[in-house]
Design brief:
With about 290 residues, this protein is of the alpha/beta class. About 40% of the residues lie in helices and about 20% in strands. The longest helix has 17 residues.
Protein backbone atom coordinates (compact mmCIF):
# COMPACT_ATOMS: atom_id res chain seq x y z
CA UNK A 1 0.00 0.00 0.00
CA UNK A 2 1.24 3.43 -0.94
CA UNK A 3 1.05 6.58 1.16
CA UNK A 4 -0.97 9.18 -0.69
CA UNK A 5 -1.97 12.80 -0.18
CA UNK A 6 -5.16 11.51 1.43
CA UNK A 7 -3.55 9.07 3.90
CA UNK A 8 -4.74 9.70 7.45
CA UNK A 9 -2.46 9.49 10.48
CA UNK A 10 -3.18 7.54 13.68
CA UNK A 11 -0.47 7.18 16.29
CA UNK A 12 0.75 6.22 19.73
CA UNK A 13 2.05 8.83 22.18
CA UNK A 14 4.13 7.69 25.14
CA UNK A 15 7.55 7.22 26.69
CA UNK A 16 9.03 4.81 25.85
CA UNK A 17 7.24 3.44 22.77
CA UNK A 18 9.94 1.48 20.94
CA UNK A 19 8.64 -1.85 22.25
CA UNK A 20 5.02 -1.28 21.24
CA UNK A 21 3.17 -3.86 19.13
CA UNK A 22 0.50 -1.33 18.19
CA UNK A 23 2.07 -0.20 14.87
CA UNK A 24 2.27 -3.81 13.66
CA UNK A 25 -1.29 -4.54 14.80
CA UNK A 26 -2.92 -1.52 13.18
CA UNK A 27 -0.86 -1.30 10.00
CA UNK A 28 -1.53 -4.99 9.33
CA UNK A 29 -5.24 -4.26 9.74
CA UNK A 30 -5.16 -1.24 7.42
CA UNK A 31 -3.39 -3.27 4.77
CA UNK A 32 -5.76 -6.24 5.01
CA UNK A 33 -8.83 -3.98 4.69
CA UNK A 34 -7.35 -1.59 2.15
CA UNK A 35 -7.84 1.44 4.42
CA UNK A 36 -5.82 4.58 3.70
CA UNK A 37 -4.40 5.06 7.20
CA UNK A 38 -0.94 4.67 8.76
CA UNK A 39 -0.07 4.14 12.42
CA UNK A 40 3.18 5.48 13.89
CA UNK A 41 4.66 5.61 17.40
CA UNK A 42 5.99 8.91 18.76
CA UNK A 43 8.10 9.26 21.91
CA UNK A 44 6.33 12.04 23.82
CA UNK A 45 6.89 12.96 27.46
CA UNK A 46 4.37 14.54 29.82
CA UNK A 47 5.63 18.10 29.37
CA UNK A 48 5.12 17.89 25.59
CA UNK A 49 1.70 16.19 25.57
CA UNK A 50 -0.42 19.31 25.08
CA UNK A 51 1.67 20.61 22.18
CA UNK A 52 1.77 17.14 20.59
CA UNK A 53 -2.02 16.86 20.75
CA UNK A 54 -2.49 20.33 19.30
CA UNK A 55 -0.12 19.39 16.51
CA UNK A 56 -2.09 16.25 15.69
CA UNK A 57 -5.31 18.28 15.56
CA UNK A 58 -3.69 20.82 13.24
CA UNK A 59 -2.37 18.05 10.98
CA UNK A 60 -5.78 16.45 10.69
CA UNK A 61 -4.87 13.17 12.37
CA UNK A 62 -7.77 10.78 13.00
CA UNK A 63 -6.77 9.86 16.54
CA UNK A 64 -4.16 8.41 18.85
CA UNK A 65 -3.39 5.97 21.66
CA UNK A 66 -1.57 6.81 24.88
CA UNK A 67 0.58 4.95 27.40
CA UNK A 68 0.91 5.74 31.11
CA UNK A 69 1.20 8.32 32.59
CA UNK A 70 -0.25 10.16 29.59
CA UNK A 71 -3.51 8.20 29.99
CA UNK A 72 -4.34 10.37 32.98
CA UNK A 73 -2.81 13.61 31.70
CA UNK A 74 -4.84 13.65 28.47
CA UNK A 75 -8.20 13.63 30.28
CA UNK A 76 -8.18 17.41 30.80
CA UNK A 77 -7.53 17.90 27.08
CA UNK A 78 -10.58 15.87 26.00
CA UNK A 79 -13.92 17.52 25.18
CA UNK A 80 -15.93 14.35 25.85
CA UNK A 81 -15.30 11.06 27.66
CA UNK A 82 -16.85 7.59 27.49
CA UNK A 83 -18.56 6.28 30.62
CA UNK A 84 -15.59 4.14 31.60
CA UNK A 85 -13.14 6.98 30.97
CA UNK A 86 -15.25 9.28 33.16
CA UNK A 87 -15.20 6.79 36.02
CA UNK A 88 -11.48 6.06 35.79
CA UNK A 89 -10.29 9.53 34.74
CA UNK A 90 -8.06 7.68 32.31
CA UNK A 91 -7.96 7.51 28.50
CA UNK A 92 -5.96 5.25 26.20
CA UNK A 93 -7.72 6.03 22.92
CA UNK A 94 -8.67 9.43 21.52
CA UNK A 95 -10.79 10.05 18.44
CA UNK A 96 -10.28 13.44 16.81
CA UNK A 97 -13.67 14.46 15.43
CA UNK A 98 -14.03 16.40 12.18
CA UNK A 99 -14.59 19.62 14.14
CA UNK A 100 -11.40 19.09 16.15
CA UNK A 101 -13.12 17.89 19.34
CA UNK A 102 -11.38 15.13 21.27
CA UNK A 103 -13.43 12.12 22.41
CA UNK A 104 -11.56 10.03 24.99
CA UNK A 105 -12.11 6.31 25.55
CA UNK A 106 -10.52 3.57 27.65
CA UNK A 107 -10.56 0.25 25.79
CA UNK A 108 -8.54 -1.96 28.16
CA UNK A 109 -11.59 -3.25 30.04
CA UNK A 110 -13.50 -3.78 26.82
CA UNK A 111 -10.55 -5.84 25.54
CA UNK A 112 -10.81 -8.27 28.44
CA UNK A 113 -14.59 -8.53 28.22
CA UNK A 114 -14.51 -9.20 24.49
CA UNK A 115 -11.70 -11.75 24.93
CA UNK A 116 -13.84 -13.65 27.44
CA UNK A 117 -16.93 -13.43 25.24
CA UNK A 118 -15.18 -14.66 22.10
CA UNK A 119 -12.63 -17.13 23.48
CA UNK A 120 -14.67 -18.65 26.34
CA UNK A 121 -18.09 -18.12 24.75
CA UNK A 122 -19.79 -16.69 27.84
CA UNK A 123 -21.88 -13.60 28.45
CA UNK A 124 -20.57 -11.36 31.22
CA UNK A 125 -24.00 -9.95 32.05
CA UNK A 126 -25.29 -11.21 35.41
CA UNK A 127 -22.13 -13.09 36.41
CA UNK A 128 -19.81 -12.86 39.40
CA UNK A 129 -16.17 -11.97 38.70
CA UNK A 130 -13.19 -12.31 41.01
CA UNK A 131 -10.49 -9.81 40.09
CA UNK A 132 -6.89 -9.95 41.30
CA UNK A 133 -5.24 -6.51 41.31
CA UNK A 134 -6.04 -2.81 41.54
CA UNK A 135 -3.68 -1.15 39.06
CA UNK A 136 -4.62 0.51 35.79
CA UNK A 137 -5.64 -2.65 33.91
CA UNK A 138 -7.54 -3.98 36.92
CA UNK A 139 -9.71 -0.91 37.48
CA UNK A 140 -10.43 -0.70 33.74
CA UNK A 141 -11.70 -4.29 33.88
CA UNK A 142 -13.64 -3.49 37.06
CA UNK A 143 -15.40 -0.51 35.48
CA UNK A 144 -16.20 -2.25 32.18
CA UNK A 145 -17.46 -5.37 33.91
CA UNK A 146 -19.92 -3.33 35.96
CA UNK A 147 -20.99 -1.27 32.93
CA UNK A 148 -21.57 -4.53 31.01
CA UNK A 149 -23.98 -5.76 33.67
CA UNK A 150 -22.00 -8.00 36.00
CA UNK A 151 -23.92 -8.92 39.14
CA UNK A 152 -20.98 -8.91 41.55
CA UNK A 153 -17.25 -8.19 41.43
CA UNK A 154 -14.91 -9.24 44.23
CA UNK A 155 -11.61 -7.36 44.00
CA UNK A 156 -8.49 -8.60 45.78
CA UNK A 157 -5.94 -5.98 46.79
CA UNK A 158 -3.38 -5.78 49.58
CA UNK A 159 -4.57 -3.44 52.32
CA UNK A 160 -1.14 -1.79 52.23
CA UNK A 161 -1.20 -1.31 48.43
CA UNK A 162 -0.63 2.18 47.08
CA UNK A 163 -3.57 1.49 44.76
CA UNK A 164 -6.07 1.04 47.59
CA UNK A 165 -7.24 4.69 48.00
CA UNK A 166 -7.97 5.04 44.28
CA UNK A 167 -9.64 1.63 44.20
CA UNK A 168 -12.01 2.63 47.01
CA UNK A 169 -12.99 5.84 45.19
CA UNK A 170 -13.52 4.08 41.87
CA UNK A 171 -15.53 1.28 43.49
CA UNK A 172 -17.88 3.80 45.11
CA UNK A 173 -18.35 5.65 41.81
CA UNK A 174 -19.13 2.39 40.00
CA UNK A 175 -21.62 1.30 42.65
CA UNK A 176 -23.52 4.58 42.37
CA UNK A 177 -23.61 4.43 38.57
CA UNK A 178 -24.41 0.76 37.98
CA UNK A 179 -25.72 -0.89 41.15
CA UNK A 180 -23.13 -3.67 40.75
CA UNK A 181 -22.12 -5.29 44.05
CA UNK A 182 -18.42 -4.57 44.54
CA UNK A 183 -16.51 -6.08 47.45
CA UNK A 184 -12.85 -5.53 48.27
CA UNK A 185 -10.81 -8.30 49.92
CA UNK A 186 -7.29 -8.93 51.12
CA UNK A 187 -5.32 -11.93 49.82
CA UNK A 188 -6.11 -14.32 52.68
CA UNK A 189 -6.60 -17.99 51.84
CA UNK A 190 -9.97 -18.03 53.59
CA UNK A 191 -11.35 -15.10 51.60
CA UNK A 192 -9.93 -16.38 48.32
CA UNK A 193 -11.46 -19.81 48.80
CA UNK A 194 -14.85 -18.35 49.67
CA UNK A 195 -15.01 -15.92 46.76
CA UNK A 196 -13.69 -18.41 44.21
CA UNK A 197 -16.16 -21.09 45.27
CA UNK A 198 -19.06 -19.51 43.37
CA UNK A 199 -17.45 -17.18 40.82
CA UNK A 200 -18.02 -17.47 37.08
CA UNK A 201 -14.90 -15.59 35.96
CA UNK A 202 -11.47 -15.15 37.56
CA UNK A 203 -9.18 -12.47 36.13
CA UNK A 204 -5.54 -11.93 37.09
CA UNK A 205 -4.71 -8.28 36.42
CA UNK A 206 -1.48 -8.30 38.45
CA UNK A 207 2.05 -8.95 37.17
CA UNK A 208 2.39 -12.11 39.27
CA UNK A 209 3.49 -14.84 36.87
CA UNK A 210 4.99 -12.50 34.30
CA UNK A 211 8.40 -13.35 32.83
CA UNK A 212 10.97 -13.82 34.22
CA UNK A 213 9.08 -14.94 37.36
CA UNK A 214 6.98 -17.52 35.53
CA UNK A 215 6.90 -19.95 38.48
CA UNK A 216 4.75 -17.60 40.59
CA UNK A 217 0.99 -17.67 41.06
CA UNK A 218 -1.39 -16.01 43.51
CA UNK A 219 -3.27 -19.31 43.90
CA UNK A 220 -1.22 -21.98 45.63
CA UNK A 221 -3.80 -24.77 45.81
CA UNK A 222 -5.33 -25.77 42.44
CA UNK A 223 -8.45 -27.06 44.21
CA UNK A 224 -9.37 -23.45 45.00
CA UNK A 225 -10.45 -23.29 41.34
CA UNK A 226 -13.94 -24.64 40.66
CA UNK A 227 -14.10 -26.68 37.43
CA UNK A 228 -15.93 -24.67 34.79
CA UNK A 229 -14.87 -21.26 36.09
CA UNK A 230 -13.44 -19.20 33.23
CA UNK A 231 -9.90 -18.06 34.09
CA UNK A 232 -8.31 -15.12 32.27
CA UNK A 233 -4.83 -13.68 32.69
CA UNK A 234 -3.85 -10.21 31.45
CA UNK A 235 -0.22 -11.33 31.17
CA UNK A 236 0.85 -12.22 27.62
CA UNK A 237 4.51 -13.03 28.30
CA UNK A 238 4.56 -15.94 28.83
CA UNK A 239 1.52 -16.83 26.77
CA UNK A 240 0.67 -19.69 29.14
CA UNK A 241 1.12 -18.54 32.74
CA UNK A 242 1.24 -20.84 35.74
CA UNK A 243 -2.28 -19.72 36.63
CA UNK A 244 -3.64 -20.73 33.22
CA UNK A 245 -1.87 -24.10 33.33
CA UNK A 246 -3.29 -24.71 36.79
CA UNK A 247 -6.77 -23.73 35.60
CA UNK A 248 -6.61 -26.09 32.62
CA UNK A 249 -5.67 -28.96 34.94
CA UNK A 250 -8.90 -28.24 36.85
CA UNK A 251 -11.08 -28.24 33.74
CA UNK A 252 -11.43 -24.47 33.51
CA UNK A 253 -11.69 -22.64 30.17
CA UNK A 254 -8.74 -20.23 29.92
CA UNK A 255 -8.15 -16.92 28.11
CA UNK A 256 -4.59 -15.64 27.61
CA UNK A 257 -3.45 -12.03 27.78
CA UNK A 258 -2.76 -11.73 24.06
CA UNK A 259 -6.51 -11.73 23.47
CA UNK A 260 -7.06 -8.77 25.80
CA UNK A 261 -4.30 -6.95 23.91
CA UNK A 262 -5.93 -7.90 20.61
CA UNK A 263 -9.46 -6.82 21.44
CA UNK A 264 -8.58 -3.56 23.19
CA UNK A 265 -6.77 -2.64 19.99
CA UNK A 266 -9.72 -3.84 17.91
CA UNK A 267 -12.08 -1.52 19.76
CA UNK A 268 -9.77 1.46 19.21
CA UNK A 269 -9.55 0.47 15.52
CA UNK A 270 -13.35 0.43 15.27
CA UNK A 271 -13.66 3.82 16.95
CA UNK A 272 -11.22 5.40 14.49
CA UNK A 273 -12.25 3.69 11.25
CA UNK A 274 -15.77 2.34 11.75
CA UNK A 275 -14.47 -1.04 10.55
CA UNK A 276 -13.92 -4.34 12.35
CA UNK A 277 -10.32 -5.35 12.82
CA UNK A 278 -9.29 -8.54 10.92
CA UNK A 279 -8.41 -10.30 14.16
CA UNK A 280 -7.17 -13.56 12.64
CA UNK A 281 -4.54 -11.72 10.59
CA UNK A 282 -3.51 -9.68 13.62
CA UNK A 283 -3.18 -12.79 15.80
CA UNK A 284 -0.50 -14.05 13.42
CA UNK A 285 1.41 -10.80 13.97
CA UNK A 286 1.06 -11.10 17.74
Amino acid sequence: MEISGRTKLICLLGHPVEHSKSPAIHNTSFEKLGLDYRYLAFDVDRVDLRSAVEGLKTLGARGFNLTMPLKNDVVELCDELSDAAQILKSVNTVVIESDGRLFGHITDGYGLMEAVRTQANISVSGIKMVLFGAGGAAVAILAQGALDGMRQISVFCRKTSRFMPRLLDIAEEIRSRTGCIIEIHDYTEEEMRRELSDCDLLVNATNVGMAPDTDKCLIEDPEMLRPGTVVADCIYHPERTKLLSMAESRGCPVVGGKYMLLYQGAEAFRLWTGSLMPVEAVLKVL
